[in-house]
UniProtKB/TrEMBL annotation:
<comment type="similarity">
    <text>Belongs to the methyltransferase superfamily. YrrT family.</text>
</comment>
<keyword id="KW-0808">Transferase</keyword>
<feature type="binding site">
    <location>
        <position position="53"/>
    </location>
    <ligand>
        <name>S-adenosyl-L-methionine</name>
    </ligand>
</feature>
<dbReference type="InterPro" id="IPR041698">
    <property type="entry name" value="Methyltransf_25"/>
</dbReference>
<feature type="binding site">
    <location>
        <position position="74"/>
    </location>
    <ligand>
        <name>S-adenosyl-L-methionine</name>
    </ligand>
</feature>
<dbReference type="InterPro" id="IPR029063">
    <property type="entry name" value="SAM-dependent_MTases_sf"/>
</dbReference>
<protein>
    <recommendedName>
        <fullName>Uncharacterized methyltransferase AB447_212580</fullName>
        <ecNumber>2.1.1.-</ecNumber>
    </recommendedName>
</protein>
<feature type="domain" description="Methyltransferase">
    <location>
        <begin position="49"/>
        <end position="140"/>
    </location>
</feature>
<feature type="binding site">
    <location>
        <position position="97"/>
    </location>
    <ligand>
        <name>S-adenosyl-L-methionine</name>
    </ligand>
</feature>
<keyword id="KW-0949">S-adenosyl-L-methionine</keyword>
<dbReference type="Pfam" id="PF13649">
    <property type="entry name" value="Methyltransf_25"/>
</dbReference>
<dbReference type="GO" id="GO:0032259">
    <property type="term" value="P:methylation"/>
</dbReference>
<keyword id="KW-0489">Methyltransferase</keyword>
<dbReference type="InterPro" id="IPR023553">
    <property type="entry name" value="Uncharacterised_MeTfrase_YrrT"/>
</dbReference>
<dbReference type="GO" id="GO:0008757">
    <property type="term" value="F:S-adenosylmethionine-dependent methyltransferase activity"/>
</dbReference>
<comment type="function">
    <text>Could be a S-adenosyl-L-methionine-dependent methyltransferase.</text>
</comment>
Amino acid sequence: MGREFISIFENWANSYDDTVVGHDLQYKEVFRNYDGILDDVVKRSGSKVVEFGVGTGNLTAKLIAAGKNVYGIEPSKSMRDIAVSKLPKGTLVSDGDFLDFPAPPFSPDTIVSSYAFHHLTNDEKREAVRRYGKMLAKHGKIVFADTVFKDRDSYISAIQDAKNRGYYQLAEDLETEHYPTISEMETIFTSEQFSIAFQKHNDFVWVMEAAKL
Ligand SMILES: C[S@@+](CC[C@H](N)C(=O)[O-])C[C@H]1O[C@@H](n2cnc3c(N)ncnc32)[C@H](O)[C@@H]1O
């Protein structure tokens, strides 16, 4: 479930870290202020963190550098291998995904993710949030950085804008992956008894901080 896009990451793994620093013009805006976005997720996190969609381990490294205990989950073997090679020895990164993952070795106070939650359909997102609600105590947090659109019109304009610029791969991503609107994310979190606040970082990415009520 939710693993429909893994082959993209098996192929992207080796050049992914070049993309996040802006080497791919199509994704330059998506990754604008990438480090600041990850730092914002770290700043909002507690001390016992489960991270989904670790990728090449860039957020994981920042969480560890901030002294947090981190358990990472990543479904792509190529991404996982790069993450493990970059992270301090002994960092736990398991095979799993947002919905199907080995139990963490501690009770988390925060669940984080960056640039990954849109791989789930909205129904799957809600199911994931429901499960995380069971893992977290009251006031436990979910902190996700991801592409979200203000509304459906903004989403349609972003696709058109990508096509106008000749960014056909970006346009295809936007059309095929499951990018939500702010109000869809609000519905998902509030229906599962979380409060939610949003902070915009660039034309695509928002940091969402949800707290269990
Ligand atoms: C764009 S990368 C982001 C990597 C990293 N979090 C970052 O901020 O650079 C998306 C990651 O999500 C992973 N992914 C895709 N589908 C997933 C799923 N269903 N559950 C968890 N992770 C998933 C991919 O394998 C990939 O490593």
